[in-house]
Amino acid sequence: MQPPPDDAWEAWSPDELFARLGVSNTDWYIVGGWALDLWHGEPTRAHEDLEFSVLACQAQRYRGALSDLEFFTAKDGKLDHLPLVEPLPTDVWQQWGADIGAGRWRVDMMVDRGSPDMWVYKRDPSFTLPRTKAIRATAGGIRYLAPHIVLLFKAKHARDKDHGDFRNALPRLESSDKSTLRRWLEVLHPGHVWIEELQPG
Length: 201
What we know:
The protein is of the alpha+beta class. The chain folds into two domains: 1-145, Beta Polymerase, domain 2, CATH 3.30.460; 147-201. The protein has eight helices and ten strands. It has a six-stranded mixed beta sheet. A hairpin with a 7-residue loop joins β7 (118-120) and β8. Pfam families: Aminoglyc_resit. InterPro entries: Aminoglyc_AdlTrfase. This is Amino acid transporter.
C-alpha cells in the first residue's frame, strides 16, 4: 500500500481525536505544538499535524480504535505500511495515520516506552518524571504533555516555530517547570540559547 505524499496533511484537531477515541481510552495524550495550545487554552498558531502519544503496550489497541486509518511506520525518512495484524517493531517510535480514501494524513502517533506510572524521555531514559506530573488535562478531559517537557523536545531542533512556542510559553511557565527545563537543557543541550532566558531573576 502506497502512503500519501509526505506533505499531504489535513490533520484532525485534538477535539476530533478525542471524539473518536472516547472517554474509555484515557491513557493517550497530545504532544507537540498542540499540547502547548491546550495548555494555553487557545490556539496560538496554525498546526500542520496532530501528534499524540501512547504507551508501547497500547499501540495496537489504538491502531484498532482508529481502524478507519492505515498506519505507516515513520523511521529514517521512510514510511512503511504496517497492517493492523502486524505488531509494532521495537525500533519504531512513530507512526503516521492516513485516510487512504481522502489521500490525507490525519494523525502522528508517537510511542511512549515508559511505564504506566513513569514517563521516560525517549532521547535519554535517565530523565524521568512520575506520569502524574508529566501529563496534564484540559477541563474537557483531553490529556497533554506538560509544557516544559514539550519545550525540551523542541529544544533539539529549535526551528522558528519552536522559538515562537518558547517565547509564548515562557511568561506562563511555573518557576518549578522553568527550573526543571533549565536543568535538563544544561545537561542535554549545554549552551542552548533558552538557558539564559530561564534563569530566575
